[in-house]
Design goal:
Length: 471
């Protein structure tokens, strides 16, 4: 179940050199749907022009067969979005396009620019006209105003002006350019798909998109790297000096699908390890381990294996809940949670239960789930969270609440336990988190758990001071 407060970011996909590029992009986005359900888009190129289709809603609803039939060409990029910067709506759906002196371009972006507001004001003052409110459009304007003659050079110049987190796909009529920020905040996998004796390069936020289309994972686009794909071949180059890596650890805690390889590591392995270490650090005298589905499943498996307490799927998730629903006029306590989860009373009644979830943000959803399990007859409820307390917002692509809304930023663990109504509450330690993701070289970002940010946040602070809504 989605934790209360965190929202999915974006998923991106690209393929070059395949006659069914748009259809494969559709399948790739389908595999990345968990990363964003607000809007989706695909832009395809045939060497002469780009055709784009974007819409609000789910990938399968937007890209029907007639729509995909319009998107011919041998190259395509795709994007599925949950807003983290800019207003909701079709104007902010991606890929975004522009006609400029560098040609017809389309861009898809995963991440957040921490200096977007300063750059936008500068561009506004210079006469740039913005159509949307997303920070992604800032990148397009920087490329368009560049005096560099080639697209690659103009993009390189633009990248040296932006700060923060970005994995980018840029599609032109005759080439695809793929970029990852120098710290590697967001994941960007690279692979190949065999077709007619050739190897077509593919790129995606997660490798689960490769599995769906039968592509082979070959590695990652390196932090600070630009990959240029064209008919003549592939060029890989560094566009910025090397910086300390800051991979988002929350990709392994929650965002990514467990069947993906992210930052070169199996997500399933990380999450089971999170659960095992959680069992060592926060044991509980209980009769069964119950995951909060779906994101708590792998950690609960690890907790059960390490503790020897039986694992039971005692909360059933309704996977068909839409974004809107009709709420009954009769007041039903915790209706929203009950719509998504239902306990199996025969497994829970009279037993001591360990509930395992991936995170606890505001605490309101956890409180409702604990209450639901008690109402199903649990004798005791012990809540275990497979990450440390979340005390600070993220500015790199995760839409967290403000610091004041984060329950752990101003409450002790005992106070949080009392609020959610559990008999005990245990979080994984920072050392346990580092160990679970194999971070022996300090390559991950833990800012949401420590409050220590790896980049300058002056632009973000100005944005918050102006009380502008951030997504």
């Amino acid at each position: 179940m989605k934790p209360d407060g965190f929202r999915e970011e974006c998923g991106i996909f690209a393929i070059y050199g395949h006659p069914e590029a748009a259809k494969l992009a559709y399948l790739g986005l389908y595999g990345l749907q968990h990363r964003g359900q607000e809007s989706a888009g695909i832009c395809a190129g045939d060497g002469r022009r780009l055709l784009c289709r974007r819409g609000l809603g789910l990938v399968a609803d937007i890209f029907t067969e007639p729509v995909l039939a319009e998107l011919g060409g041998h190259s395509a990029i795709g994007h599925t979005r949950y807003s983290t910067a800019g207003d909701s709506g079709i104007l902010n759906a991606q890929p975004m396009t522009v006609d400029c002196n560098k040609g017809h371009l389309a861009i898809a972006h995963n991440g957040n620019l921490t200096n977007a507001i300063d750059l936008r004001r500068e561009l506004d003052a210079a006469g740039s006209i913005f159509q949307a409110t997303s920070d992604t459009e800032v990148i397009l304007h920087l490329v368009a105003r560049s005096r560099e003659r080639t697209l690659a050079a103009a993009l390189r110049e633009a990248l040296l002006e932006i700060e923060g987190a970005y994995s980018l796909l840029v599609l032109a009529q005759d080439r695809l350019i793929v970029v990852r920020d120098p710290r590697g905040f967001r994941p960007l996998a690279m692979g190949t798909l065999s077709h007619d004796g050739r190897q077509c390069p593919v790129f995606a936020s997660e490798t689960c998109a490769f599995d769906l289309i039968g592509a082979e994972y070959t590695g990652e686009v390196e932090p600070g790297e630009m990959v240029i794909v064209e008919a003549a071949g592939i060029t890989r180059e560094r566009f910025a000096p090397e910086q300390p890596r800051s991979h988002c650890v929350f990709e392994h805690v929650y965002f990514s699908r467990p069947d993906s390889t992210v930052f070169g590591r199996s997500v399933q392995d990380s999450r089971e390890r999170l659960g095992r270490l959680l069992a060592r650090e926060c044991p509980a005298a209980a009769d069964l381990v119950v995951p909060v589905p779906d994101s708590g499943v792998a950690a609960a498996v690890g907790y059960s294996a390490e503790s020897g307490i039986p694992y039971r799927v005692a909360l059933i998730r309704n996977h068909y809940v839409g974004r809107t629903f009709i709420e009954p006029s009769q007041a039903i306590r915790d209706f929203g949670v009950k719509l998504k989860l239902n306990p199996i009373r025969s497994l829970i009644e009279g037993r001591r239960v360990v509930l395992v979830d991936d995170s606890l943000v505001r605490g309101t959803t956890s409180r409702k789930i604990v209450r639901m399990v008690r109402q199903a007859g649990a004798r005791e409820v012990h809540l275990r969270i497979s990450c440390p307390p979340t005390i600070s917002p993220c500015y790199y692509g995760v839409d967290t609440p403000s610091k004041g809304e984060l329950i752990a930023s101003h409450n002790t663990v005992e106070e949080i336990r009392d609020f959610v109504g559990a008999d005990s509450l245990g979080y994984l330690s920072m050392e346990g988190l580092r160990q679970a993701v194999g971070d022996d070289r300090g390559h991950f970002c833990y800012a949401c758990y420590t409050g220590h940010y790896p980049t300058d946040l002056v632009g973000i602070e100005k944005l918050l001071a102006s009380d502008t809504r951030r997504r």
